[in-house]
Amino acid sequence: MATTSFLDLSRGRPLPPSLSSACPCRPSAVTLPPSRAKLGGRLDFSIDATRPVFGLGPIRGLGRRRRRLIAAVARAEPDHLGDGNANRYLEEVQKGHELSNSEDAVSEKQEKASQLKKRIVFGLGIGLSIGVVVLAGGWIFTTVVAAAVFVGAREYFELVRSRGITAGMTPPPRYVSRVCSVICALMPLLTLYRGQIDVSVTSAAFFVAMALHLQRGNPRFAQLSSTLFGLFYCGYLPCFWVKLRCGLAAPALNTGIGTSWPILLGGQAQWTVGLVATLISFSSIIAADTYAFMGGKAFGRTPLTSVSPKKTWEGTIAGLCGCIATTIVLSKIFCWPKSLLSAIAFGILNFFGSVFGDLTESMIKRDAGVKDSGSLIPGHGGILDRVDSYIFTGALAYSFVKTFLPLYGV
């Protein structure tokens, strides 16, 4: 009659056999060293005279730990089995290895597919929503920018307070971070209302610096520099999108879409230079990111910079070409700007602004020791993860149209 033995790996000792008779060919229980038993979980192991049967209870940390556990038992048992049983037992263990590897591969593929689906769904939703907001302009556009700035500023100051950055510097106090987030959110609103905010930004920086100097304890230069950079990065730079969209109100006279635009939606007067320039800038940034990603996946070999190891020169070149091509195509559709060289220069500026913004945020996250700035958008991360390419681009686009295009490119 077969004898069944159970091995409790959580304690490292054999349990009593389930039947009173014992098989003379081998011991009725196997004891593993205690060092192999500290794997968390329980292994119920039974062997009869014809075939081995083993069952795994709930084990914390499936995958590699489970395979190591099976391998440990596989090394311990064959010495006590006959040649035939040992071969069958090793075949069962090998099947267990293959099954575990297959399950891990399927689980990883499912997780990647789920993440990609989330990115696509939320990306399309965000893109359509932003398109409507850009077309609306005015206070609607400015309010959305202000909300994004507020959330982005909160994420920035949380990154500054993260363990990775605070290991090398002293972060600003929380009340200063919160006040700065509110100030950043007010900047786009003041830009639309007053047309410029240079004096307001300077005054805000002065009062924040005074608050840091008068705080309890010893003020640090790192606190001052990170706070003022936050005001500039999260508040002042995004205001140029308000200047571009709402400040350049000259009509785009040559835009054919404007002549057939419904009167209820603003008619031809809705299509200004600011609207066309903003649409082209947004579209070219999206094209640059998309072509850079696809080019890097297909041809990427040479790393671009250590700040973002996944970016490659091949992907960057593909993104530049895609950005310029998109700008040229849209300039033909909207008939703005009229000059081909102006369209190419506009596309180049948009591309370098987006790359610089992306690398800047990657540097902040790298120092903070985090992958994403937040978790607000499923599959995408935080607000800063989505708008990093736009932060510097608005200033470049506005300056180019305002300064270098005669009659705003009409």
Structure in words:
The protein is mainly alpha-helical and 410 residues long. Helix content is 62%, strand content 5%. The chain contains 14 helices and 6 strands. The protein starts with 6 loop residues before the first strand and ends in a 6-residue tail after the last helix.
Q: Could you give a quick summary of the protein structure above?
A:
This protein is mainly alpha-helical. The chain has helices at 64-76, 83-136, 138-160, 163-166, 174-194, 198-213, 221-236, 239-247, 256-259, 273-299, 313-334, 340-368, 383-387, 393-404, and strands at residues 7-8, 13-14, 43-47, 52-56, 303-305, 308-312.
Task: Reconstruct the topology from this structure.
Blueprint: E1 7-8, E2 13-14, E3 43-47, E4 52-56, H1 64-76, H2 83-136, H3 138-160, H4 163-166, H5 174-194, H6 198-213, H7 221-236, H8 239-247, H9 256-259, H10 273-299, E5 303-305, E6 308-312, H11 313-334, H12 340-368, H13 383-387, H14 393-404
Helix pairs in contact: 1-2, 2-3, 3-5, 3-7, 3-8, 5-6, 5-7, 5-8, 6-7, 8-10, 8-14, 10-11, 10-12, 11-12, 12-14
